[in-house]
Amino acid sequence: MLKRILIGAGALILILVAVVIGRTLMVPTMNLAEAGKADSIDAERAAQHLAEAVRFETISHQRGAKAADIARSKAAFEGFRNWMDETYPAFTAATSREIVGGATLFYTWEGTDASLDPVLLMSHIDVVPIAPGTEEKWEHAPFGGVIADGYVWGRGTIDNKGSLVAMVEAAELLAAEGFRPVRTVMFAFGHDEEIGGGQGNKALSELLQARGIRLAWVKDEGGVLGQGLLPGVNAPVAMIGVAEKGSISLDIVAYSKGGHSSMPSPAAQTAIGRLARALDRIGNSPFEARVDGATRGMIESLAPAVPFLQRMVYANLWLFEPVVRGVMEGNPSSAAQLQTTIAPTIVEGGNKENVLPPEARAVVNFRIHPRDNADKVIEHVREAIGDPEVSVEPLPGIREASSVSNIEGEGFELITRVIGETFPGVISAPYLVVGGTDSRHYLPITDNVFRFIPIRMGPDDMARFHGTNERVSVENMGEAVAFYVRLMKALNEQDAAE
Known about the structure:
4-stranded antiparallel beta sheet
């Protein structure tokens, strides 16, 4: 009997091994030696125009900003708009322009087939301010628009004027050649993305809804062309965001009687003690972590570009998902892909060293995974705290996670094909954007949003987002223009074939 059990167990193990190896061998491997030089179109011209665009200090200011700073930014947005007209005459002539919310630029390039839903290409004009005290750390003035050492330097080169300029450079070239899209192509260049996009793309989306317009798909910022950003992946990866997390901030307030510090209640009963305990309980009650949705799609897409043993794991997530999850949980950036995250951001309590405050407050920000929602987060936190003397209330500005775009539809297929044709040797992968983009405002009128810019980024470049020494290479600008030229041509070919 025991012998039969052992034989049966051995047979099951052999079958399991055969299945795992068989699934691994079915994954086509990627020969990095086949990687060729990316397409490029007049990189010097594109770089020069990006440098000019950087010189407009189109800063988005939060509430309470100085009137002089707001006036200076307003003038910069007006200057940028005039610069667009002067720099891209063919694009300007081929499109109609509307100004939304005071400074968001909306261009419509009418197609020849009005029966087809338009596509929307997005970017944003506004940039974040320079962090006070960091000005001297820049190798070149942040708004100098300097071209040096093969790069265009300055605030907004990565986020997001580099992609904007490449997009319009491509449209200018095509318009000058007499190109006409079959499907209407729209361009939305927001002026307040860095502060939520309420006056810009949110208002524009509402305008399109009022006009009864439905969009076939939207392409916005989000993912980049990463090299060395993913462990074990040797090939450059075009990371295409097919979903993005939501956001909610909860106001956590703990109460007590207060009083004099010479006669304190037990520490756990003071407002500050209650708050500390509440925050500890929240932190020790993480949300469920799983490798699913866009994150699972990303890992499976990367299988051809990793070594055999790693490919075996990626190709068999049905078996190795716990292993992959454990590895990803060891890194904050990859862990954020797996679950709703918890981040205490503000703590307030007390104003004098010998007074027990009657209340203490904290704000905790949660980035909501698509499998969760705001109500679930609130319920989860209240249950974790379990203290009637601690209130939990949501702050304004709740944003639910987006839906997940279709990675088997025409839009994703087109974008991935154009990436492959423009950047030989690059592998495309869907992924979950852990931040937020303006594209979420268009979810009422489209089922598919793809978040990707053709800007190359390595590990050393990630800190340049909203940081010091933001830059894009001159060569990359030529590649980015070629990507958008090919994208619009490929869209025409796809539409003509239908």
